[in-house]
Amino acid sequence: MPVYEYRCRSCGATREDVQPMGSPPPGPCEVCGGELKRVYGRVGVKFSGWGFRRNDSLVPGDRPRKDFKQLEQKAQEIRDS
């Protein structure tokens, strides 16, 4: 089950709760009795593979776009430097 973080709309107190997906907030704030709202955190995403703008820009415009082996080599050079 996921861990959700909630913040009180009235006093700003935070609370973490383990709940099944799709569950409503766990009830009123323990500090002031106010309404709890789910806090959405940041998620790290890493795009891998070809077809993403960052990877495609490694090849100059005069080269064919389907030269994946050279793209991979260029990416390795940049990563190692």
Task: Explain the overall architecture.
This protein folds into 2 domains: 37 residues; 36 residues, no CATH class. The model has no long low-confidence stretch (mean pLDDT 81). By secondary structure, it is α+β, with helices and mostly antiparallel strands. A hairpin with a 5-residue loop joins strand 1 and strand 2. The radius of gyration is 23 Å and the shape is rod-shaped. Strands 2-1-3 form a 3-stranded antiparallel β-sheet, with no helix packed on it. Helix content is 21%, strand content 19%.
Integer-rounded radius of gyration = 23 Å
Please, how many domains?
Answer: 2
Helix content: 10-25%
Give the overall shape, derived from the CA principal axes: rod-shaped
The count of β-strands is 3
N-to-C CA distance: 41 Å
Strand line-up in the sheet with most strands: 2-1-3
Low-confidence segments, given as residue ranges, are: none
Q: Give the averaged pLDDT, no decimals.
A: 81
Beta-strand percentage? 15-25%
What structural category do the secondary elements indicate?
alpha+beta
Biggest pleated-sheet summary? 3 strands, antiparallel
Helix-strand topology string: EEEHH
The total of helices stands at 2
Structural descriptors:
81 residues, alpha+beta, three-stranded antiparallel β-sheet, 2 helices, 3 strands, 21% helix, rod-shaped
